[in-house]
């Protein structure tokens, strides 16, 4: 089963079943931050089955809140995940769960810092591999993992998309501070 959202970063395809979300795929590219950050941001379902499963409803609602009302994401239920990578014990699963639990909206962490949090300070490259394997981008926020130098680094959807997501979070966090 699949749901498609039109978002500021292009089409987002969510696949899953009644047990949980299998994968989020990002199709399309973000607009340059300067042209979309101050504009009204929208994220709407454009394709969905008539009977949407609860995990897909939760995921779509969470992503809509992320783009339009990010402060609401903490109040919404996290959709359950149903992907083998997230169910089998592994370094990748451990790193993705640590990232989800510990790196909050508007924050960033380096590959090395995340390796340290996972208990292996020499595993920065393996952390990069874990980020590439992430089946649930945005919700499991691999875009928040950056190079020690402060550079954004690589991202499955392209570095411009990673930079847009980081800018979106920074701007929204600043708005909430006022």
From TrEMBL:
A cellular component annotation (GO) from this entry: nucleoplasm
Q: Where in the cell is it found?
A: Nucleus
Annotated Methylated-DNA-[protein]-cysteine S-methyltransferase DNA binding domain ranges read: 93-170
> Which GO annotations describe the biological process of this protein?
DNA repair; methylation
| Signal peptide (from-to) | none
Q: Determine the domain of life of the protein's source.
A: Eukaryota
Keywords for this entry? DNA damage, DNA repair, DNA-binding, Metal-binding, Methyltransferase, Nucleus, Phosphoprotein, Transferase, Zinc
Which residues belong to any copy of the Methylguanine DNA methyltransferase ribonuclease-like domain?
A: 4-68
One Pfam match, given by its short name, reads DNA_binding_1
- Broad class of enzyme this protein falls into: transferase
- Cofactor(s) this protein requires: Zn(2+)
Molecular function terms in GO for this entry? DNA binding; metal ion binding; methylated-DNA-[protein]-cysteine S-methyltransferase activity
EC assignment: the record states 2.1.1.63
Report the SUPFAM superfamilies cross-referenced here: Methylated DNA-protein cysteine methyltransferase domain, Methylated DNA-protein cysteine methyltransferase, C-terminal domain
Recorded catalytic activity of this chain's protein: a 4-O-methyl-thymidine in DNA + L-cysteinyl-[protein] = a thymidine in DNA + S-methyl-L-cysteinyl-[protein]; a 6-O-methyl-2'-deoxyguanosine in DNA + L-cysteinyl-[protein] = S-methyl-L-cysteinyl-[protein] + a 2'-deoxyguanosine in DNA
InterPro entries, A to Z: MethylDNA_cys_MeTrfase_AS (IPR001497), MethylDNA_cys_MeTrfase_DNA-bd (IPR014048), MethylDNA_cys_MeTrfase_DNAb (IPR036217), MethylG_MeTrfase_N (IPR008332), MGMT_N_sf (IPR036631), WH-like_DNA-bd_sf (IPR036388)
Please explain the role this protein plays, according to its UniProt record. Involved in the cellular defense against the biological effects of O6-methylguanine (O6-MeG) and O4-methylthymine (O4-MeT) in DNA. Repairs the methylated nucleobase in DNA by stoichiometrically transferring the methyl group to a cysteine residue in the enzyme. This is a suicide reaction: the enzyme is irreversibly inactivated.
* PANTHER family assigned to the protein according to its UniProt record, in alphabetical order: METHYLATED-DNA--PROTEIN-CYSTEINE METHYLTRANSFERASE
Q: Which family does it belong to?
A: Belongs to the MGMT family.
What's the name of the protein?
Methylated-DNA--protein-cysteine methyltransferase
Q: Which organism is it from?
A: Eublepharis macularius (Leopard gecko)
């Amino acid at each position: 089963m699949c749901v498609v959202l039109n978002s500021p970063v292009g089409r987002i395809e969510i696949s899953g079943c009644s047990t949980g979300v299998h994968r989020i795929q990002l199709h399309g590219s973000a607009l340059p931050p300067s042209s979309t950050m101050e504009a009204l941001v929208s994220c709407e379902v454009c394709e969905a089955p008539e009977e949407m499963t609860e995990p897909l409803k939760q995921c779509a609602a969470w992503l809509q809140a992320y783009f339009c009302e990010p402060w609401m994401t903490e109040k919404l239920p996290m959709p359950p995940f149903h992907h083998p990578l997230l169910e089998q014990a592994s370094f990748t699963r451990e790193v993705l769960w640590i990232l989800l639990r510990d790196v909050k909206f508007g924050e960033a962490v380096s590959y090395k810092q995340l390796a340290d949090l996972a208990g292996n300070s020499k595993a920065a490259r393996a952390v990069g591999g874990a980020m590439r394997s992430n089946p649930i981008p945005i919700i499991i926020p691999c875009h928040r993992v950056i190079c020690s130098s402060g550079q954004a680094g690589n991202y499955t959807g392209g570095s411009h998309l990673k930079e847009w997501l980081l800018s979106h979070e920074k701007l929204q966090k600043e708005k909430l501070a006022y």
